[in-house]
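Bumping my old thread because nobody answered last time. Still need a sequence for this structure:
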């Protein structure tokens, strides 16, 4: 359709906006996935949605269109899209690219903008979020080399001070060449072999399943390995800790003393009750933090056979939630936002654990406790379904939602 350059420009704008958004609790973009649940308005979501819509557009977008002809966004965004169609760029994008303060649509300088290009650069390092990127930018650092120099020579810019950098961030800076390049498929294979060995050894049972998820499953080049792990019969409880210990012992994973190695565990216990409560009290928002789930997992640094350092995420799911986990962790993030929004429009709630809805004074798991709702909120089974059928794969979830089955590579909303 010829609209791809516009998609890429909107994606770039999305990333600059993520770099402008400071959250109090989380200073790491690898632990978030574009939340929208944060207090302040998140412009990155506007651009992400616009990019997805432009990619899906069945006509060429050019300057002859009126803003109203670009129906999926507000006038301010539509005007930027027109600019990009005409000239390849737009004022805000150029301001970000040159680290300048950005004006809002009424021409007023936006507070807390500036440094877009530099902050985006710093945030490519695992463990560095908008908060740290801003501190470094405000101190005057503009490149990785600047940061390295500051570590070597002490911080020349602030009197007697030193560069504020954590050991995880310093590790990422040191290994940035490995961490920023695209992974060859052999690295994913390497991860698979090492993790499967560790799972079998640590638990003493065979039969573990380990699937590539994330961009890699959507047939895109990956800069990290994302995997969902499950077992058809054995409990997954407590596995993450044993797995990490074994991988560290085998020198396949960098230990948490040297680099980022974040383990989440033990949060699965009451998760269904929590979900039920949220559904009952209407406190769910389908589009809110798509990165929040309660699976046991580890976000760490893998060491390949060639001695390269690669980011690796392992997500461990009980078998009954496996299809939901797979769907959630395959992405893309924007595809998931659309899917969850759709569930919400049908008065249902979807996350990476289950599909649920309310039934009178009770919450109801779909399909175990009852049929899904359609767009008008009416319950009813799709063709081929009844309460005895269980969700076996991602396509089943799509059927229950009444949306087309899409293969992973068809879920690349940018
Ligand atoms: P990329 O690595 O090439 O940038 O893209 P990706 O593979 O699509 O994204 P990812 O950041 O590696 O995450 C994989 C998918 O998992 C993503 O589409 C959204 C989903 N996801 C969750 N929970 C979380 C989370 O806690 N953090 C992140 N980053 N993604 C999550 O379901
Ligand atoms: Ca990924
Ligand atoms: Ca990842």
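Sorry it took so long. Here it is:
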């Amino acid at each position: 359709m010829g609209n791809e350059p516009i998609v890429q420009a909107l994606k770039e704008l999305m990333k600059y906006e993520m770099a402008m958004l400071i959250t109090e609790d989380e200073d790491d973009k690898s632990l978030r996935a574009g939340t929208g649940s944060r207090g302040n308005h998140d412009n990155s979501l506007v651009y992400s949605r616009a990019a997805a819509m432009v990619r899906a557009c069945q006509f060429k977008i050019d300057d002859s269109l009126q803003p109203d002809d670009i129906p999926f966004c507000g006038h301010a965004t539509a005007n930027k899209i027109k600019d990009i169609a005409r000239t390849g760029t737009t004022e805000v994008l150029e301001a970000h690219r040159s680290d300048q303060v950005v004006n809002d649509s009424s021409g007023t300088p936006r507070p807390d903008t500036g440094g877009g290009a530099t902050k985006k650069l710093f945030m490519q390092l695992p463990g560095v979020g908008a908060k740290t990127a801003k501190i470094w930018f405000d101190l005057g650092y503009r490149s990785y080399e600047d940061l390295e120099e500051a570590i070597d020579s002490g911080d020349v810019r602030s009197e007697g001070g030193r560069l504020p950098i954590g050991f995880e961030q310093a590790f990422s800076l040191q290994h940035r060449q490995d961490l920023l390049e695209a992974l060859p498929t052999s690295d994913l294979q390497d991860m698979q072999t090492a993790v499967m060995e560790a799972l079998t050894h640590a638990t003493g049972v065979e039969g573990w399943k380990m699937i590539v998820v994330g961009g890699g499953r959507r047939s895109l080049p990956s800069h990290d390995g994302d995997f969902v792990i499950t077992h058809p019969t054995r409990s997954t409880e407590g596995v993450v800790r044993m797995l990490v210990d074994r991988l560290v012992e085998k020198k396949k994973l960098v230990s948490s003393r040297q680099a980022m190695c974040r383990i989440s565990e033990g949060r699965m216990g009451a998760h269904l009750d929590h979900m039920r409560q949220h559904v009952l009290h209407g406190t769910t928002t389908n589009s809110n933090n798509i990165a929040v789930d309660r699976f046991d997992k580890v976000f760490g640094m893998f060491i390949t056979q060639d001695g390269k350092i690669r980011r690796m995420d392992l997500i461990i799911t009980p078998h009954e939630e496996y299809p939901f986990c797979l769907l959630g962790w395959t992405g893309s993030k924007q595809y998931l936002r659309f899917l969850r929004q759709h569930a919400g429009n049908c008065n249902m709630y979807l996350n990476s654990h289950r599909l649920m809805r309310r039934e009178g004074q009770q919450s109801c798991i779909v399909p175990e406790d009852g049929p899904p709702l359609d767009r008008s909120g009416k319950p009813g089974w799709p063709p081929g379904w009844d309460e005895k059928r269980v969700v076996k794969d991602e396509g089943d979830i799509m059927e229950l939602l009444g949306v087309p089955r899409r293969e992973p590579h068809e879920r690349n909303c940018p």
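The beta strands are 209-212, 224-230, 262-264, 296-303, 309-316, 348-350, 355-359, 362-366. Let me know if any region looks off to you.
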